[in-house]
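Listing S7. Sequence submitted for prediction.
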Amino acid sequence: MHNSNTITLELAESSKVRAQLCASYPKESQVLQIKITSSVAIGLTIPIVVARLVARFTISGRLFGDDLVIVLASVSNIPLFDYLSTIFATLTTRKQMNKRL
């Protein structure tokens, strides 16, 4: 049986090997594609959610719990987009700086 130390050492070793193998195959940054995808998703989501809320309120005269969940999920996409784009931009910048050194 493997203990947790052995597994940790094996994971660390495989990570080193993978880094060595992938070093000669740099990948292009995908920040732009992620920003475009997130922007389109937000651009589609907000009008659909607003239309749903208006329709629900018009038909029933009130909003329900599932409407609150939809609003929270939709609003959470906006900071998530900003957070992800910041992370990917930072990682890309670090990789470019390491290449120059």
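Caption to Listing S7: primary sequence and predicted structure tokens for the chain studied. The chain has a mean pLDDT of 76. The CA atoms of residues 32 and 75 lie 21 Å apart.
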